[in-house]
Design brief:
Layout: H1 3-16, H2 18-56, E1 61-67, H3 69-76, E2 81-88, E3 95-97, E4 100-102, E5 104-107, E6 109-111, H4 113-116, E7 120-124, E8 138-142, H5 143-153, E9 161-164, E10 167-176, E11 187-190, H6 193-196, E12 206-213, H7 219-233, E13 244-248, H8 249-292, H9 294-302, H10 307-344, H11 356-382, H12 386-391
Helix pairs in contact: 1-10, 2-8, 2-10, 2-11, 8-10, 8-11, 10-11
Length: about 400
């Protein structure tokens, strides 16, 4: 029997039992929707966290510890280094603007900040981040901080003085700050390195450095060399992590990917429970269908139908059921993802991503469910003896 005939007869058999077929399809729809929704949620969560880590990460390599200006110059002089941005330790100074205290992240990036970051100055100007002797009491602030001040007082703070740690700084520029779902303050302020020492920081040393490489693929080799060089300058064991730690954005992303994979697996198992129930419903329908069509099967075998023909026909009916349910379940997930993502907004960490991988996996699962849960009824039907089947009441 040709495959085309098998599919046609399978479709006719399902059409003859519309209500039962519809109820079985609903069970598969619920199961496939549960699986795809859970996988889409896991993939969306993974992508969002990875994107935020990438946007928040500082350079290809991040060096933490009590770092001196000499360390900065040594790292900058390495052939694999393209840019270095150091950050002064901050004492979280109080920021007061027009008599109102604001929650502001104050820092003093030093080095190749403008080369390494696409700083978008929307108003005013910027000071020289590379000048260690520049000590003017000036500050550039994020647009989110200016928006907060304008909302409270109705006036821009550009060219105005604000209090940072008890000292007056003149706002010379406003920059556009990239949004992050982890931000929970009013904004960011950058002040010159020399002007920060003794005010927002009680040390001239840096707490961290972001190293941007000429070739980011060599982050492991470069990171190891930096750690060994810093330890050697302090007469420590080369692999010691007592004073310094070196990490990479890639290593953090890989850790997140491993965690996200475990979360996705768990969510997939939760959704799989609903799909298993739908598969049982499919098997139950096919067993009932075989029982009702015993005489028909006996007659087919009596006129020449082979065991394989009967097996393939019942399997085709089962797969046809689960495929319809799978397609509908995927479409529902896609629609729900569009609505949910619009409601959650871009700033949310949660989102549903119905990728091609999720669609292919869900389609494969739908077919597999049809084969697995249809195989037992199909085998039973194919093994029926024509004489016994024809005698069935």
């Amino acid at each position: 029997m040709k495959l085309r005939h098998i599919v046609q007869e399978g479709g006719q058999a399902l059409h003859a039992n519309k209500l039962r077929s519809a109820l079985t399809i609903i069970g598969i729809v619920v199961g496939i929707f549960a699986v795809t929704a859970m996988l889409a949620l896991g993939e969306g969560l993974s992508q969002n966290i990875e994107d935020r880590i990438s946007s928040m990460s500082s350079g290809d390599i991040s060096v933490q510890g009590d770092l001196t200006m000499t360390d900065f110059e040594w790292i900058r002089s390495q052939l694999y280094t393209e840019d270095v941005v150091a950050t002064l330790s901050s004492s979280n100074p109080t920021v007061i603007i027009s008599g109102t205290e604001y929650s502001v992240s104050v820092s003093s990036p030093f080095g190749d900040y403008l080369d390494a970051n696409d700083l978008d100055i929307t108003k005013g100007e910027v000071y020289d981040f590379n000048d260690p002797e520049y000590e003017e009491k000036v500050v550039i602030v994020s647009s989110s901080l200016e928006d907060a001040v304008v909302e409270d007082g109705g006036q821009s703070i550009l060219n105005q003085k604000i209090s940072i740690g008890g000292l007056q700084y003149t706002v010379i520029g406003i920059f556009e700050e990239s949004s992050s779902g982890f931000m929970r303050n009013d904004g960011t302020a950058y002040i010159p390195y020399k002007a920060a020492v003794g005010n927002v920081s009680n040390t001239s040393n840096f707490s961290s450095m972001a190293v941007y490489l000429v070739d980011s693929s060599y982050y492991e080799i470069a990171g190891k060399h930096i750690l060994e060089g810093l330890n050697a300058s302090r007469h420590l064991s080369l692999d010691s992590e007592d004073l310094f730690s070196v990490s990479t954005a890639q290593s953090m992303i890989e850790s997140v990917q491993e965690t996200s994979a475990m979360i996705s697996l768990f969510l997939g198992v939760v959704g799989g429970i609903a799909l298993f129930v739908g598969g049982i419903g499919t098997m139950n329908m096919m067993l009932t269908s075989v029982t009702e069509r015993t005489k028909e099967i006996g007659l087919r075998k009596a006129i020449g139908a082979r065991n394989r023909d009967i097996l393939l026909q019942i399997l085709a009916e089962s797969v046809f059921l689960t495929m319809i349910g799978g397609i509908i379940g995927i479409l529902i997930t896609y629609i729900v993802s569009i609505v949910a993502n619009k409601m959650l907004g871009d700033s949310s960490t949660l989102s549903l991503v119905v990728s091609s991988g999720v669609v292919i996996f869900a389609t494969s699962v739908a077919i597999a469910v049809g084969v697995i849960f249809g195989l037992y009824p199909a085998r039973n039907a194919s093994k029926l003896q024509p004489v016994d089947a024809l005698r069935t009441e």
